[in-house]
Amino acid sequence: MAERIRRAAGSWDFLVLVALVLVVVIGAVSIEGVASPRFWRFVILEAIPIAVIALPLTLLIITGEIDLSVASVLGLSCTVMGKLWASGVHSLPVLVLVCLALGVLCGAVNGLFVTRFGLPSLAVTIGTLALYRGLAYVTLGDKAIADYPTSWTDGAVAPIPGLTIPWMIIVVAVLAILFAVVLHATPVGRGLYAIGNNDEASRFAGVAVGKTKFWLFVATGAMSALAGIFWTLRFASARADNGNGLELAVIAAVLLGGVSIFGGRGGLLGVVGAVVLLGVLRNALQLADVPANALTIVTGSLLIASVVGPNAVAIARARLRRRRPTTSIPTTP
Amino acid sequence: MSTALLGLDGVSKSYGAVAALRDVRLELRAGEAHALVGENGAGKSTLVKILAGVHQPDTGVLTFDGKPLVLGNPADARAAGIAVIYQEPTLFPDLTVAENIFMGRQPRRSLGRIDHAAVRARTRDLFDRLGVALDPDRPARGLSIADQQLVEIAKALSFDARVLVMDEPTAALSGVEVERLFGVARSLRDSGAAVLFISHRFDEIFALCQTITVLRDGQWVSTDAAADLTVDRVVRRMVGREVSSLFPKQDTKVRDVRLDVRGLSLAGWFQDVSFTVRGGEIVALAGLVGAGRSEVVRAIFGIDRYDAGEVHVDGRRLRAGDTDAAIAAGLALVPEDRRQQGLVMELSVERNQTLPRRWKLSTAGLLTGKAERAAARTWSERLQVKTSSLRAPVSTLSGGNQQKVVLAKWLATEPGVLIVDEPTRGIDVGTKAEVHRLLSALAADGVAVLMVSSELPEVLGMADRVLVMHEGRLTADIPRASADEESVMQAATGVGR
Ligand SMILES: Nc1ncnc2c1ncn2[C@@H]1O[C@H](COP(=O)(O)OP(=O)(O)OP(=O)(O)O)[C@@H](O)[C@H]1O
Ligand SMILES: [Mg+2]
């Protein structure tokens, strides 16, 4: 048990949670408004789409792949929803189903190129990042569709009765638990870590590498499309540039959460912690009147820190371990 | 007696809490081949890595020609004239074979350009000496484990070594390749180099070496002239008790055909391979390195696709290229390359062992560590896997113990058809007899066993029938009664056909 606690305390997950607490405490003390319920409502509303996409993306990155097209799928989902609404489809379940199908299709295209044709996911999804965003502009041009019923738009951001926290957080929490269980406590999850570390040995152990990756791309597409619906309703606006650049925020959160960009390492606790951490940081700095450009710089720096950080920690550990024995005095002849 | 060329004294080395070497001494003399033996995890490879400058000893000194020697890194060792063949090949997959051999010290032309023609020519030279039929320009990716080992050997021989250190170089090689390697090693030795040789095959040790040092649990036990020793005495010192070094297969009742391979072909690799294995039978697949044995078993297991042919398990046809279905049908394959194919090195012993069974071990689709731990413990104990913890990354285990983990991983699936590719590669005597006993017991339970092995005594001792492959074709099917060294080697080399 003590061993367990010690190991947990040295883990990256733990560092992320400590950093989160520090940022919250320092923010609450030094920036007016950070302690207010309104602030947290904003942080959570902003974090919801990021978390929804980060969940499947974490699993995908653990297998050693990446999907840069997530924000474009979100944008495309927004415009398709807007277009359908404008052309008279007024049933929310139908809209959700169509957007979901669209996300599945977008993810399947990514997955097919990567698993069938053996192309690197980085290249494929840079391509579809541009392609899906382009399709979003084709769908809606630079129009905005904004005339949704208030019952929908208010419903999407409504608080839990008696609190200020949006009820959506419950949905996201359930999803997070679902993904965490899959990753950490099912045979599928075991396979993901194996694939990320050595896909050849995984194949020899009967892990269906291609199939697994394909379905993760599909899941990522589907969740991105769902995030698009939330986005549309939250801002009551479907536009082709919705969520432009959001992939940076999502990937930053996943990597800062301790997932290795090379695959095979990381967990969902750290990622969820990092999503909140980044959200708090961004909103707190905004409150402190830090300009938007500086915010981008902060996100970028954290992204780099998160890639360098775990490596630096590992290297430092190895150094320490190596140095310790050599401190004993060598016998001389 | 000549003085030591390279000496170690009082050398200790720990990895964290594991003491791999404790106060070890060793003297390598010019013109002499010295064997280092010990059980799996005894510390042999650790000692090699110290001689190679990969690891620095915690305590103790090295001397070279009587002068103290400090090896801060592998370049220091190479500069001192120490050539090392590591237990596990470490080639760069995307470089060519020739580039791998001359990595970092390529012959140059003017302006520092690499002289590719010279690299190629010198590689050909080396390959001729070793009798290797590899294209210097092919990438290292996809080389069989034996070919990788041959490239590593060529790499070590590519500069004039005063000390040649070989850590289980022969583990995946068959008799012919071993003879060639020994030819080169002997001529090096006779021209005044010192040779350190590590192997779990005693016939090889006694054929090459004049001196034998025994390590046990990281400690020096004895150093004697080979002439004063016998296999039994060496084994007793290694293990500290009596062990039988051979376990011949027991006779079993032969049952129905379980594995039926019909006309399997893959252009460029193997043609028209047909055979059956019955329950209760152990069938060996013998042949030279590169004969296509591993490729055939990979295709059977669904790793690679094939152009023509069929594979049936228990009367049901297997879909080509579907490993998952093959496992579900009761097939298991212990692959030849444990680092690339057998294990996920970064994952723990426990996770590696339970990977093929992860669905079976789950309840209602959920896996808690408990079931995995219990399952892993059972099989680790049966195969005597030596590890600090089941949670330790499998990369921290010694080579032989890694091999045991691969075996445990597949034996635990309780297969109906078990295919093993070099099952005892790098495994010490005691455990080897245990593995043979296990295979025999499995056959007695009705399992069909197909065994690819380059080790002739293993083939002859264990097999009910010996299938021999030569250049991608099956050339012989020899029953146990008439299988001997000569008949197998003849079929393997294609002589007398
Ligand atoms: N990187 C490492 N980290 C931790 N422990 C290690 C590491 N490398 C080796 N060990 C441990 O050191 C001990 C000696 O290992 P070593 O590889 O030297 O054995 P060996 O004699 O070469 O065995 P084999 O015959 O199986 O190759 C083993 O107990 C092994 O688990
Ligand atoms: Mg070893």
Characterization of this structure:
The complex is a heterodimer of chains A (about 325) and B (about 500). Chain A has about 325 residues and is mainly α. Helix content of chain A is about 75%, strand content about 0%. Chain A has one domain (about 10-315): ABC transporter involved in vitamin B12 uptake, BtuC (Orthogonal Bundle). Mean pLDDT of chain A is about 90; it is low at about 320-333. The radius of gyration of chain A is 22 Å and the shape is globular. Chain B contains 17 helices and 20 strands. Chain B has helices at about 45-50, 75-80, 95-100, 115-130, 145-155, 175-190, 200-210, 230-240, 295-300, 325-330, 340, 350-355, 370-380, 400-410, 430-445, 455-460, 485-495, and strands spanning about 5-15, 20-30, 35, 60-65, 65-70, 80-85, 165, 195-200, 210-215, 220-225, 255-265, 270-280, 280-285, 310-315, 315, 330-335, 415-420, 450, 465-470, 475-480. In chain B, helix 13 (about 370-380) crosses helix 14. Chain B is globular. The relative contact order of chain B is 0.12. The mean pLDDT of chain B is about 90. The chains are: A mainly alpha (about 325), B alpha/beta (about 500). Chains A and B meet through helix 9, helix 10 and helix 14 of A and strand 1, strand 4, helix 10 and helix 11 of B. Adenosine-5'-triphosphate binds near residues 42, 45, 46 and 401 of chain B.
